Input
Amino acid sequence: MADKIFRVNMTNLTSTIEEVPPAWAGYGGRGLTSTIVSAEVEPTCHPLGPKNKLVIAPGLLSGTVAANSGRLSIGAKSPLTGTIKEANSGGTAAQLLARAGVKALIIEGQPKGDTWYSLAVTPEGVTVNEETELIGKGNFAVVDALTKRTGGKQGLITIGPAGEMKMGGANISIKDPDGGLRSSGRGGLGAVLGSKKIKFIAIDPKDGKVAIADPEKFREANKVFAKALVDHPVSQALGQYGTNVLVNIINESGGLPTQNFSKGQFAGHEAISGETMHDTILARGGRIKHNCHPGCVIQCSQVFNDAAGNKLTSGFEYESIWAMGADCCVDNLDHIAQADKLMDDIGVDTIETSVAFGVAMEAGVLAFGDGAGVCRILQEDIAKGTPLGRIIGNGAGSVGRAFGITRVPVVKNQAIPAYDPRAIKGIGITYATSTQGADHTMGYTIATNILGVGGKLDPLTKEGQVELSRNLQIATAAIDSTGMCLFIAFAALDNATCLPALIDLINAKYGLSLTGDDVVNLGKYILRTERAFNTAAGFTSADDRLPEFFYLEPLPPHNVVFDFTGKEIDTFWNF
Amino acid sequence: MKRITVKLFAYFRDNRFKLEEREISEETTVGDIVDALGIDRQEVGVLMVNSRHTEFVYRPAAGDVLAIFPVVGGG
Ligand code: SF4
Output
């Protein structure tokens, strides 16, 4: 099926199917969302107003059988950061959109009244329907109700109450193969969908299939690619312990942000570690391995049960566990799992919201370590939209401003994730220069700074960090365009057959002859396009800085500060 | 002889330990300790002494904390 652009206008509730403009043809995923947002969204527009557009695009390989290729990109101008944004997630939506022939779904305009809507996407187009029953409901209730309404097979993209209330921390949830949720977490994109008055998007590809130009070559390339993934030891560790295997190693390195970024090690690390989680899952009969979409051969996800053996949460990630755990000093994995589930249901980003709780604890709203208090505020304040709930639901920066706190770990108003940039300097360059606010996934220097993957570079020296972050950010932008999960990067950094096989997959699908250089150039093009949008929106190099406290407050145990000058940071863009 | 602390992580803990104090000789290297634990050096991803990365050839000093990790990743 030839891919098309599906466009929905929420001002007049119409939709069209358009040919793909030649200039967009070579892009998918993040490359496409950022190209379209740059081409069609006024950089200075209000992110929650009628001029912003939400763009949803499967990756170049999504919908094929290529291993780990089912990731979805959602782009817009972010209400949290004011920059361009691409949030990437698993779930089944990317594969089903691709099979429905959707290269990108563009949602524009804004309805005038108070009526809420849903979208139904099929190969024939998009219909806009009024929705009443599910408004105000949590994400899990939406999934349950729609599974009954339409059968369990459809893809589903939904927002919770936080998105309806247009909170800056609101995420967009994507249904996984088992009715669990994956999140396009960062940057408040749930608020953009809420501003368009769309509660959910259902996707039914009917019998649509994705065309492959050279099936034989595709099969061969996929064999090599999948083998490179499966063989890499990091993939195996991810399957066994999930991403949460990182708690202990980052803690040991002295870079685990603790007690609202005031320490680099957490006394309760063992209780929240991947090792403990693994043993707990085994003892309670959960699932060690789980995939966020069919075709993933790494399976970093898991199902975590409560003490009674009932499912508590799935896709229980290091970032969420660190943020609610070490950063808020909660050393009880059950409280963290409960909070994780509540955040998924309300539809808020676990990183942004947990870091916001850390700042709120510093402000004395509740005590550090009060996991039960976190769960209570989530249910009674954030879910209901009380004034306190809105302050926390709008993110870490919002809490800091409301309570006059100076230790507020954000860049471009987006919460800093699970690695302290004082003790792991490469990641500080990524936080500072990312086109999307603080985000570790934009250029994961932890691989080289801490894990010894793709070489080794001492986390405490400045030497080589800018170049490392630049190379990784360029490569990541390209990978985010393919539909591939970023965890293929560990194999790609170490195994010489992996990246060529990935390029062969793209070539075989589209009948192209791209080379490694083309991929690097794609990455550079994406970063430049995103930066140009931000510049036009009013951002300057003065925004590419870390908060002041990272330069002033030494972080134990290494007692180091972040010491890159502005000039040094700005050399990032010399490419 | 000198006393050091050894910490193991992920599956290196299986049938071994999480944390143990050990007596080692002046000459003992990190590599010797890894070998004595029956851990294949190929499977070692990261070594840290006192929260700094180190190598197999390093000779721990009295009071050092040695952490041994298999190849792991996440994000
Ligand atoms: S490795 Fe994890 S995040 Fe990546 S595709 Fe598999 S389950 Fe999803």
User: Anything to note?
Assistant: The CA atoms of residues 50 and 65 of chain B lie 5 Å apart. The mean pLDDT of chain B is 96. The beta strands of chain B are 2-8, 19-24, 44-49, 52-53, 65-70.
